[in-house]
């Protein structure tokens, strides 16, 4: 995943799509791990939505805000700071920064769009597992939610492509970064975790695992 991102942004690549593919792979892996943690917590009667949010914030905010503080100080020192390019990253909304509003100073926080997607995912997936823990939905319901996301998101991307004049530019110019246009990768991670036993016992999986 990291290699694809680095290569996609390098001078050796002629397509940013390779970097985007790397980010999608990262989303799949991240969702697989996070959903695995939440699922096990529910099974062990150890689920706490407050504790989950606290742990996610502790692992994210100190390092990220330290970066933002030092970047701001440095850019202000060289008279290159532009708050209009920074404020979305502070509240994890850089993935809703329309491309038409970018300038060169956006580069310093542009990469935080994927972190914004992760933070938005943490909020929503914890709510889903709160319902799961409360017996409002079952494992089959979890599968259906993730499957529904996988089905719907491609249609949202298509609607954005042909939505000129109908859909606000905030969303049109954030396609490929906004949560609703990339969350199918996260849902794939969830599907893989919840069905890993079936996947591992499938003929296709055994065929490729034997080849490797």
Count of individual beta strands: 0
- Rg is 19 Å
Tally of separate helices: 11
Mean pLDDT across residues: 93
What would the principal axes of the Cα set say about the shape?
A: globular
Largest β sheet strand count, sense and barrel closure: none
Return residue spans where pLDDT drops below 50 for at least 5 consecutive residues: none
Helicity level, as a percent range?
over 70%
- Oligomeric form of this entry? single chain
Based on helices, strands and strand pairing, what is the structural class?
Answer: mainly alpha
- Helix and strand run: HHHHHHHHHHH
Terminal residue distance: 20 Å
How much β-strand is present in the residues?
Answer: under 5%
Describe the structure.
It contains eleven helices and no strands. 73% of the residues lie in helices and 0% in strands. The chain is globular, with a radius of gyration of 19 Å. The mean pLDDT is 93. It is mainly alpha-helical. The protein starts with a helix and ends with a helix.
Question: Would you summarize the structure shown here?
Answer:
The chain is built from eleven helices and no strands. The chain has 212 residues and is mainly alpha-helical.
């Amino acid at each position: 995943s990291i290699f694809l991102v680095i290569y996609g942004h390098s001078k050796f690549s002629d397509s940013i799509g390779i970097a985007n593919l790397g980010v999608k792979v990262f989303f799949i892996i991240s969702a697989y791990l996070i959903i695995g943690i939440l699922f096990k917590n529910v099974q062990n009667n150890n689920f706490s939505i407050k504790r989950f949010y606290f742990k996610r914030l502790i692992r994210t905010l100190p390092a990220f805000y330290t970066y933002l503080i030092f970047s701001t100080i440095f850019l202000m020192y060289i008279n290159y700071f532009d708050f209009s390019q920074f404020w979305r990253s502070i509240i994890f909304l850089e993935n809703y920064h329309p491309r038409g509003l970018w300038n060169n100073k956006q580069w310093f926080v542009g990469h935080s769009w994927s972190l914004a997607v992760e933070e938005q995912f943490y909020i929503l997936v914890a709510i889903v597992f709160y319902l799961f823990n409360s017996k409002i939905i079952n494992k089959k319901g979890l599968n259906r939610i993730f499957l529904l996301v996988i089905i719907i998101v491609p249609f949202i991307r298509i609607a954005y492509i042909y939505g000129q004049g109908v859909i606000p530019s905030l969303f049109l110019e954030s396609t490929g970064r906004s949560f609703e246009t990339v969350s199918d990768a996260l849902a794939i991670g969830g599907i893989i975790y919840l069905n890993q036993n079936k996947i591992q016992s499938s003929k296709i999986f055994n065929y490729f695992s034997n080849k490797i």
